[in-house]
Design a protein that fits this description.
By secondary structure, this protein is an alpha+beta fold. The chain has twelve helices and eight strands. The chain has three domains: 9-54; 83-171 and 262-391, MetI-like fold (Orthogonal Bundle); 178-246.
């Protein structure tokens, strides 16, 4: 054993007693904190179970098989269906707002963030007004405003507002085009799309290797898109057009076809997209400004245009900086869907409150609602962390 790893008798003699040893004190404090937290949780759980027993409220989850007792707005859910299915509908309604809302807010926020750094005075000022107004208005105020002052003031179905040939707006909701699938060839067509995607990826890899070997332009993105669209079109024609676009059409007193976004859903979607995109715009602006100035100077020296500088130099580096903060905004948008309870949007919290009002146990239902939002948040956090790790610079 080397001399550096040996402990001399003098060191052992001068070692402080255990009640003054910093390492032992640190471990003891951590253990004590965990014990205190565990004791607090045990006390809260015991207090809850005792009170439920005194009040005669059941403590199991068997009530999930009982009929809900009320229908759900904007769906085919029936009152005779069990509460378990109602909660799943509420979870699905969260995703109906969160997934397209995240994508839309990301696109708008990126465009506005880039616009805030534009050399055009009008574009720069318009983007600045967009951010300063929307991010300083509470999302609940925006939600109620769009629901009462905008969507509830739309005309009746017979006098629907047409936004081109693709969308209809009336007091019953916003009608958008929907994708119509045929029962037979549709699964086969999705397989063709998968093969087309694989072929486009393989082409991109081959073109990249050719670029690395010869230095000739790879053009992997346009060529890959053309290959994907070509294979998809051939498969679509060969299978008898299994995938089609269904447009909403006014028929009599109703609207036939298309995808209906009820006013409550539309209000939540619009308010959260506008609110979140204003914060994403600031994240994008700050991330672009955080890129070293020398990168811009080097791209100018290479003769790149402004669009090429953004696409190939600035935005890829800004993306690495913006990912963690943008992920937080995605989480906020998903959790803020619960604000839809104020306009009766049937998301998970709204359905849980209705079930509690019908006499079902509140602790279990609130636990399920919390677990649902927690699962969605953890899923978004996992995706964001994976993307952030993928974008990190290699240490080599």
């Amino acid at each position: 054993m080397s001399a550096s790893t040996e402990t001399s008798p003098s060191d052992r003699a001068h070692r402080p007693p255990f009640w003054r040893d910093v390492r032992i004190i640190r471990i003891a404090l951590q253990v004590g904190f965990l014990v205190a937290v565990g004791a607090l949780l045990f006390w809260l759980f015991d207090n809850l179970t005792v009170n439920l027993r005194v009040l005669g409220i059941r403590r199991d989850f068997g009530f999930l098989d009982q009929p809900t007792g009320v229908p759900i707005l904007g769906s085919d859910f029936r009152a005779q269906s069990p509460i378990r299915d109602a909660l799943l509908v509420g979870l699905y309604n969260i995703l109906r707002v969160a997934v397209p809302g995240i994508l839309t807010a990301l696109v708008i926020g990126t465009l506005v963030g880039v616009g805030r750094l534009s050399t055009n005075w009008l574009v720069r000022r318009a983007a600045g007004i967009y951010v300063e107004v929307l991010r300083n208005v509470p999302p609940l105020v925006m939600l109620i405003f769009f629901y009462i002052a905008v969507l509830q003031q739309l005309p009746a179905q017979a006098d629907s507002i047409t936004a081109g040939p693709f969308a209809l707006l009336n007091v019953r909701g916003v009608y958008l085009p929907s994708i119509q699938l045929s029962a037979g060839p549709a699964p086969v067509f999705f397989g063709v799309l998968g093969l087309a995607l694989v072929a486009a990826i393989v082409l991109g890899v081959l073109r990249t290797r050719r670029f690395d070997a010869t230095g000739q332009p790879h053009r992997r993105v346009p060529l890959g898109v053309l290959l994907f669209l070509g294979i998809a079109t051939l498969g679509w024609l060969a299978l008898g057009r299994p995938l089609g676009l269904q447009l909403p059409v006014i028929e009599g007193r109703g609207v036939d076809g298309g995808y209906r976004m009820i006013p409550e859903q539309a209000a939540v979607f619009i308010a959260l997209v506008l609110y979140t995109s204003s914060f994403i715009a600031e994240i994008v602006r700050g991330s672009i400004q955080a890129v070293a100035k020398g990168q811009t100077e080097a791209s100018n020296a290479l003769g790149l245009s402004g669009l090429q500088r953004l696409r190939f130099v600035v935005l890829p580096q800004a993306l690495r900086i913006a990912t963690p903060s943008a992920g937080n905004e995605f989480l906020n948008l998903t959790k803020n869907v619960s604000l839809g309870v104020f306009v009766a949007y049937p998301e998970l919290l709204r359905i849980g409150r209705q079930a509690v009002g019908n006499g079902f146990p509140a602790p279990q239902l609130l636990f399920i609602v919390s677990a649902g939002y927690l699962a969605l948040s953890l899923g978004i956090s996992l995706f964001t962390n994976l993307a952030n790790r993928r974008l990190q610079l290699s240490e080599r």
